[in-house]
């Protein structure tokens, strides 16, 4: 029996089922028969009847073995999940090659037909290509790039995006999930109102949003104690490792970043961190910068940010982060962790579920204090910077000069390439600048103000000031802000990793800036994918009928949007003109 490529351990022997296999399989060479071992193990673990197991084993032999072997042969090295040999005739994976090519051609044709209906999607596609080329230009070792990891990572991101954004079942499922999470997090008020009182939790941000972090941290600790989170993370990392060909440790850490923060995810691979290669450590850092923690996600939801977009952005960022990490810092060393064998996720040391809940709540105190302190400091610094810039600007007849305006001019091309309309690009660029140079908490808080203005039906422009951005721009911005890639996170990342492995401090410091840049670009790539796949949903189709029946004593975004269109019914047009003091009508041709 051949040995696994990464661990050197002999592959486990699996006895054939009692039923005699067809003569065809008996006539095949031993190397080909070994290809089905992993497929057998997978289906034997399914909790179904023995009859179904045996039927699946026999019927899925050809395609399962061929596709499995194709995955192994695609990368530079052999994955070591089942000890499959690398040298086999191409005829064995021909069906899988045909299938993959058909999927690729189908995706290209679908994108071509889809973008022909909405040309603005081409801008987002151009932005995606530009960002990938930029990251390739920044690559540490151009000749060592694993294009398998890059294309599979982007492919998985697209597949997830298509399911979540474009398909009705996927969109409905994530909308439902987001609604349920919001309902679940609303139970936080039971504890916070008792401690702080009803008045404070409705009027003060610190008592409204930050207690959600405590509650969510408590729940996550319970799920870790029960082993549920470890199970989910292992399943996600297995999919990423099998398809992308990455090592076990870096994949586990990036998968964990979907649920935990940039300092908690490395704890999943703490026993192995000292022996990980620089490329693997770079992937760990990039995963931390590219995603947000589940605990702060609850706080962003309390701002009014769309829950389904936040969840989708965090999930889609994982394969993209791993792909771009391997593009920017490819593997040139020999990793000790090519295989899952020996890499385990352990449960906590809590004795019971109550201790787990208590420890989770207590552990969040530092996080809550850190969030509050950073918000106080950064908002104060931003106010001071704007005051100083305004003073300097007044000397050159630019009294409105501010940090946001500077960011809007510098990052406006990036915002436009992500898919935001040119009119929305300055505001989106402002939010990007706030996220990168301050933090995403402040940026999401500002985005929530724009969203509230839009939902309230305020006019789009107040003089020369734009009061809100379009729904499409909101979705793109939500994806672009979903990550910890900001300057303050450099200290957090270095401090966390150095406290775990002090002897590698200089190595960590040498790659952290590259990882920060990669993480920021991953969030923008995610936004480009959202821009490519986004389609309007839930908008009023019959504006004339809607405006003839709507109550104009209130204001909403639907009223404003319909009032901006050219109506067939003069009565509804007259109502709109009066409601908006003829400013809408004045803009008509």
Structural notes for this entry:
With 589 residues, the protein is mainly alpha-helical. Among the domains are: 1-86, no CATH class; 145-356 and 500-508, no CATH class; 543-586, no CATH class. It contains 29 helices and two strands. The protein has helices at 23-26, 30-34, 37-44, 50-59, 61-74, 94-117, 120-137, 147-166, 168-185, 188-196, 198-203, 205-208, 210-226, 228-244, 248-256, 278-290, 294-303, 307-328, 353-395, 403-418, 425-437, 440-455, 471-480, 487-500, 505-533, 543-549, 557-563, 570-579, 583-586; strands at residues 461-462, 465-466. It has a two-stranded antiparallel ribbon. Helix 3 (37-44) packs antiparallel against helix 4 (50-59), helix 8 packs antiparallel against helix 18 (307-328) and helix 23 runs antiparallel to helix 25. The longest helix is centred in the middle third of the chain and has 43 residues, at 353-395.
Q: What's the topology here?
A:
Elements: H1 23-26, H2 30-34, H3 37-44, H4 50-59, H5 61-74, H6 94-117, H7 120-137, H8 147-166, H9 168-185, H10 188-196, H11 198-203, H12 205-208, H13 210-226, H14 228-244, H15 248-256, H16 278-290, H17 294-303, H18 307-328, H19 353-395, H20 403-418, H21 425-437, H22 440-455, E1 461-462, E2 465-466, H23 471-480, H24 487-500, H25 505-533, H26 543-549, H27 557-563, H28 570-579, H29 583-586
Antiparallel strand pairs: 1-2
